[in-house]
Design brief:
mainly alpha
């Protein structure tokens, strides 16, 4: 754990991961800012954000997961010096993710009216549908951005996405301020100002990423081979063989939390608002841990390209040790500041009290959440995605959600019972996925 070889891996993983962490943090910060600023308007509006995001985020993470399919392939080709293959992978990544963004937008367009049929409070639904109708517009630029971002991560170029994400979020915060509350000559748009601010920020983020990759001399060779006509069926299959199961892995986990929003809506809108507050904070640490997961995927993919079996295990386990340390610190912070953090998102005393109790549960599942997401990344690096996908289905939909329902409604534990079920699902996933990586990495040897 503290040998020279592991310390070497810690350092290289850290320098690869921290820009990814900041970039991933940027993705989730858009939703966190929306939640915090909308919370200043009222609990009904905050519950509407929770309800609309439950559907939007479900498809968003599927799109992000599919884009991950190109990263280990690029990392492996890069370590073996195959520039032509990477040029072809860039071509395919842009085509796949742009088309996917359009498909996901159309799916959301036809699904948004279904929010009327989940037995939610009518005042929440009335606000949620228009909010979602604008948020879905950002799906296309986000998928395009992610396709380029994951290609660059495979080449260990992670800082550009970090800088672009940070600047995009600063813009999102400013636009939220002026469009929600009507400052600097803008009309006061309330809840709708928040979703328009997010859409504008995401559009500019995609444009900035394209300009960076297109005009960077380092990638000139790849663009010389770029053409929609150069579509490769075999490479598309390779990318989707990793990307689609990865998308479903994220979808099954996030889907469990999304369905939890529906169940909590059966209890009340204040509980729904409190869930959104606590989930926003937990999502920040999760997305930062997913940065380590992405780094683990690249590092393990590099070692696969170098055909180093011992390197595969050290690359994976160094990421596990790092995420346990990081998520342990986050757990302590959640416990220490559980009464102060919710105040940043809502002024309602009842919402703050409920959110504070949920942060205690969130603190308990931090390490499990970190281990399972890093395990998924490490397994993606060795191109093992089918069994991990089955594990996520079992953990969240066969164990986690049914137990959430039992705890909440049969044992009358309310919203905390739903989170106890999610805790059980995350812990199950962490144990099984860790054991899977240990087994697969030994099998490689």
């Amino acid at each position: 754990m503290l040998s020279k070889q592991y310390i070497k891996h810690y350092k290289s993983t850290f320098w690869l991961a921290y820009p990814i962490v900041m970039s991933q943090f940027g993705h989730i910060l858009v939703g966190v800012v929306d939640t915090a600023m909308v919370g200043q308007i009222g609990s009904v509006e905050q519950a509407a954000v929770a309800l609309s995001n439950s559907l939007y985020t479900l498809l968003l993470v599927f799109g992000l997961g599919v884009s991950y399919g190109v990263t280990p392939l690029v990392a492996s080709a890069d370590s073996s010096g195959n520039k032509l293959e990477n040029a072809q992978l860039l071509n395919q990544s842009i085509i796949i993710n742009t088309v996917l963004g359009i498909i996901l937008f159309l799916v959301l367009f036809f699904l948004s009216p279904l929010l009327n049929h989940f037995n939610q409070k009518q005042e929440v639904v009335v606000n949620a549908i228009p909010f979602l109708n604008v948020m879905m517009l950002g799906m296309i630029p986000l998928c395009f951005f992610s396709g380029l971002k994951q290609f660059l991560e495979g080449l260990s170029d992670t800082k550009a996405a970090m800088y672009i994400s940070v600047l995009s979020n600063i813009l999102n915060i400013v636009l939220n301020y002026v469009m929600i509350f009507g400052h600097w000559g803008f009309p006061k748009m309330g809840l709708m100002g928040s979703c328009w601010a997010s859409f504008i920020a995401r559009m500019l983020m995609a444009v900035a990423m394209f300009f960076y990759v297109y005009y960077n001399k380092r990638y000139k060779y790849y663009w010389e081979h770029f053409s929609i006509k150069n579509y490769s069926k075999s490479l598309t299959k390779k990318i989707l063989a990793i990307g689609v199961p990865s998308g479903f892995q994220w979808m099954f986990e996030v889907g469990a939390f999304a369905f939890a929003v529906i169940m909590i809506g059966w209890i009340g809108h204040k509980q729904q608002a409190a869930h959104q507050v606590a989930l926003s904070l937990a999502a920040v640490t999760y997305m930062m841990a997913s940065g380590l997961s992405a780094a683990a995927s690249v590092k393990v993919g590099n070692q696969m390209g170098l055909k180093s079996s011992s390197g595969v295990r050290m690359a994976g386990f160094s990421a596990f040790f790092m995420v346990i340390f990081f998520m342990g610190l986050m757990a302590i912070l959640f416990l220490l500041f559980r009464n102060q953090l919710p105040v940043l998102f809502n002024k309602d005393a009842e919402v703050i009290s409920i959110a504070s109790s949920l942060l205690v549960v969130a603190a308990v599942f931090q390490i499990s959440d970190g281990i399972q997401v890093v395990a998924l990344g490490a397994l993606r690096g060795v191109k093992d995605v089918k069994i991990p996908t089955a594990i996520t289905i079992i953990a969240y939909w066969i164990i986690g959600l049914p137990m959430s329902y039992i705890f909440a409604f049969n044992l009358n534990l309310g919203v905390k019972g739903i989170w106890y079920g999610l805790l059980l699902g995350l812990t199950t996933a962490a144990i099984l996925l860790f054991l899977r990586f240990n087994y697969i990495s030994k099998k490689i040897i």
